[in-house]
Design brief:
With 244 residues, this protein is an alpha+beta fold. The chain has a single domain (3-219), classed as Sandwich (Jelly Rolls). It contains 3 helices and 14 strands. The strands form 2 sheets. Strands 1, 2, 3, 6, 7, 9, 12 and 14 form an 8-stranded antiparallel sheet that branches. A 6-stranded antiparallel sheet has the order 4-5-8-13-10-11, with no helix packed on it. The protein is globular and about 50 Å long. The protein starts with a helix and ends with a helix. Mean pLDDT is 83; it is low at 1-22 and 224-244.
Length: 244
């Protein structure tokens, strides 16, 4: 675990999984409170060059199922409801699970526990209890971070696929088990080649989450220089040892 992660007060889960020798990826989850999630976002942003940001404030708010869609294009890429949920709050108040995703605010939301994290702002992208939701980033980005509010309590799955076909997966209890309503996490996806698709799968047909403040980017030039300097330092140490 790196020093940056250790400094965060509460970490719900940290996964570092590489499924192929050529290209690797990591998924990290920080929470379950807003202060910890915001600190994680600040740390994430400090190490990247941002190429896109979306807080969903420029979209019309869904007031019934006609305001929902199976896919929504944004500044950072396309979100899609691949497998819809059923029952529960998303089939009440004029909405429909089958109609897909929607932009909500506190006044129109039929759900408890999901909320906006932008400051200022009052809107978020709601999953409307999708069993499987995907995000396809725009461009050749290798860094993705976003807030997720009131996520499915346990047993869900996150994975992301790189454009070379490598997939990194985190199974089961990524948020640390059963949660009370209103929890919030910051999730980061970091890869060493372009990210093709991120998938969020839940374990319940009538429980969902909200997404907000999605950032995509690439490593900051300073971070790459620091990594290069570190590798050169390691090489120099090895050469000195051989001479000695």
């Amino acid at each position: 675990m790196n020093i940056r992660i250790k400094r965060l007060a509460t970490i719900a889960a940290v996964a570092l999984l590489a499924s192929a020798p050529a290209h690797a990826g990591t998924i990290q989850v920080f929470g379950p409170d807003l202060a910890t999630a915001k600190a994680a976002e600040a740390s994430f942003l400090a190490g990247i060059t941002v190429t896109g940001f979306e807080n969903f404030e420029g979209f019309p708010v869904a007031t019934n199922s006609t305001g929902q869609s199976l896919s929504i294009g944004t500044n950072v890429g396309t979100f899609a409801s691949i497998t819809q949920g059923s029952g529960g709050a998303c089939d009440n108040s004029g909405f429909s699970c089958a109609a897909g995703l929607g932009i909500l605010n506190a006044a129109e939301s039929p759900f408890g526990g999901r909320f906006n994290v932008s400051d200022p702002g009052n809107q978020w992208l709601d999953s409307f209890d999708a069993r499987v939701l995907t995000f396809a980033p725009s461009g050749d980005v290798t860094r993705v971070g976003f807030f997720i509010t009131d996520p499915n309590d346990a047993g869900g799955r996150f994975d992301f696929t790189l454009k070379d076909g490598t997939t990194t997966t985190v199974e089961q209890n990524i948020f640390g088990g059963a949660l009370t309503n209103g929890r919030v996490f910051y999730v980061t996806f970091v890869a060493d080649s372009a990210i093709e698709l991120i998938t969020i799968a839940t374990n319940n047909r009538n429980d969902g989450y909200g997404l907000d403040d999605v950032t995509v980017g690439v490593p900051a030039p300073g971070a790459l220089a620091l990594l290069g300097a570190g590798l050169l330092g390691i090489g120099a140490m090895r050469r000195r040892r051989r001479v000695a």
